[in-house]
Amino acid sequence: MDVSELRAIALFDGLTDPQLGDLVAAGRVEEVPAGQDLFREGRPADVWWVLLEGAVSLVRQVGSEETALGTMSTPGQWAGGFAAWDPHGVYFATGRSAGPSRLLRLPAEQLRRLADEWFPFGVHFIRGLVDTVRRIESTARQREALVALGTLAAGLAHELNNPASAATRAVDALEAASDDLFGSLGRLAAQSISADQFLRLDGLRRDLAPPSSGAGPLEVADREDRLSDWLSDHRVATPWLTAPVLAAAGADVAWCERAAEVLGSGSLAPGVEWLASSLTIEALLSEVKDSTRRISDLVAAVRSYSQLDRGSVQQTDVTEGLESTLVMLAPKLEGGVTVVCDFGDDVPTIQAIPGELNQVWTNLIDNAVDAMQGVGTLRLSTRVDGAGRVVVEVADTGPGMSAEVQAHALEPFYTTKDVGKGTGLGLDISRRIVVERHSGELTIASEPGSTVLQVTLPVTGLGSR
Q1: Which of 156, 261, 333, 411 has its Cβ near the most Cβ atoms within 10 Å?
Q2: Is 97 exposed, middle or buried (0-12, 13-18, 19+ CB in 10 A)?
Q3: Do both 293 and 316 map to the same domain?
Q4: Per the structure, how many domains does the chain have?
Q5: pLDDT band (50, 70, 90) for residue 459
Q6: Quick one: which of 36, 30, 42, 33 has its CA closest to 96?
Q7: Which of 249, 278, 299 is the endpoint of a domain?
Q8: Contact at 8 Å (CB) between 427 and 415?
């Protein structure tokens, strides 16, 4: 290629022959056959391509299909090279030759060098513009992260408050139950109960078994009424308090008759009170145990979600990440959202950055719930495809996306939410994490009543794409 060929292209009007010579020397001409990809969507735009002859189609992945955005067919049309001004610049589409074509290929660093020599003011202007856009994007991302963090923190506080409050109430009740236990034990001692009687009484306590869960509320209420009547007839104090405890533990009138046979009339009242206090303490201890276990499980879920105690790149279980994300978003799922999980048993661990993938799951699930306006079915599934890659799907039964929304959903700053409720960065961040950081794919398939966002991840080769 010589300078005369470039002189005929309007793009280079204003450049001198020595400048065009420098341009030719810094780059090279590539002749490509039809159907060859010159650059790919989402990859660093580190090459400036200028069309000399032929045509180049520009396509983007939308859902499971490629959508044509346009065609470069006029000599002088160009693409890429953004890395000359922005180290994070990427191609916004895939460039594929539509027929035998010739293009000038100029590395971005050479474009930057020549521009610095020829148009120093223009370079300063472009860099300032890029920096401004980047700062706006960074601020919006920070706001999105803070909003998400605040939502997760509020939800976690709510989830922790329930078991913590239950444990506090149970501990307070344990104090009163312990006082009743010691008081009844003192009254039993005052009645000179024998060691054999006490052992038989404790055996009756151990023989109790809670009634089956199939018992209805009316049946339980009838049992309490019969026990209350029996206790009143045998002069046991506060039968309305003691009867529910005994009924919940599985006692009936026949069991009370055996207790009366063991204790005799003189020791029956303090003996039954001791039994009720013992059963109450057992129930309260079980409640404390369940509450503290729930708190421990929540802390474990938070640790798994945040990956605070793990390295960045590691063998990652995507199912574990999805489950911990569901725990974090539990308050938002309450009410009318039904969660259906279909996790494959044969899904292998993958080489990934789990903290970043959890951010993807959070964005996808949060968007799905918003789309359903809090009412519908959320389906999470994992499987292995025919190529051995891990496939994760987040589906909802919302109204679906229009073709226009699907075409722009993965673009930065695009949002369909009301003002103040979204920055349009959730899916863009997710796309970058999946495509650029994990060499995977993020696609959308939507129709009324069904929207499926599919994430496909390789098992190995993180960032190799």
Answers
A1: 156
A2: buried
A3: no
A4: 3
A5: confident
A6: 36
A7: 299
A8: no
Q: Kindly provide the b/e burial profile for residues 201-226, where b requires at least 16 CB atoms within 10 angstroms of the residue's own CB.
A: beebbeebeeeeeeeeeeeeeebbee
Residue pLDDT, tens place only, 279-296? 888 888 888 888 888 787
Record the tokens describing residue 319, joined without a space.
């199912």
Distance of CA 204 to the CA centre of its chain: 50
Q: Which has the closest alpha carbon to 450: 391, 396, 389?
A: 396
Same domain, 343 and 420: yes
pLDDT confidence bin for 65, thresholds 50/70/90: low
**Both 107 and 212 in a single domain?**
no
Within a domain: 190:
yes
What is the rounded distance in angstroms from the CA atom of residue 93 to the CA atom of residue 57? Answer: 9
Ranges 82-86, 205-209, 461-465: which has the least confidence = 461-465
- Domain assignment of residue 132, yes or no: no
- Per-residue pLDDT at 53 exceeds 80: yes
Burial code (b: 16+ CB inside 10 Å, e: under 16) for 148-166 equals eeebbeebbeebeeebbeb
Q: Could you tell me how far CA 146 lies from the centroid of its own chain?
A: 16
Residue at which a domain ends, from 255, 279, 299 = 299
**β-bridge partners, 457:** 390
* Residues in Cβ contact with 123 at an 8 Å cutoff, skipping those fewer than 6 apart: 85, 112, 115, 116
User: CB-hemisphere CA count at 13 Å for 130?
Assistant: 15
Both 325 and 432 in one domain: the answer is: yes
Q: Cβ neighbours of residue 419 under 8 Å, at least 6 residues apart?
A: none
- pLDDT tens digits along 318-334: 998 898 888 878 878 87
pTM exceeds cut of 0.85: no
Residue 256 domain boundaries: 155-299
**Residue 44: CATH number of its domain:** 2.60.120.10
Read off the tokens for 463.
């960032």
188 and 263 part of one domain? yes
**Residue 305 maps to a domain:** no
* DSSP state letters, 78-117: EEE-GGGT-TT-B-SSEEEESSSEEEEEEEHHHHHHHHHH
**Predicted local distance difference test score (pLDDT) of residue 169:** 87
**Are 349 and 285 found together in one domain?**
no
In whole angstroms, give the CA distance from residue 139 to residue 137: 5
Residue whose token pair is 């020599």: 117
Same domain, 93 and 163: no
Task: Using the structure block, give the residue that is written with the tokens 């890029």.
Answer: 130
426 — phi, psi (to 5°)? -60, -50
pLDDT average, residue stretch 29-39: 93
Residues 6+ apart with CB under 8 A from 412: 137, 424, 425, 428
13 φ, ψ to 5°? -60, 135
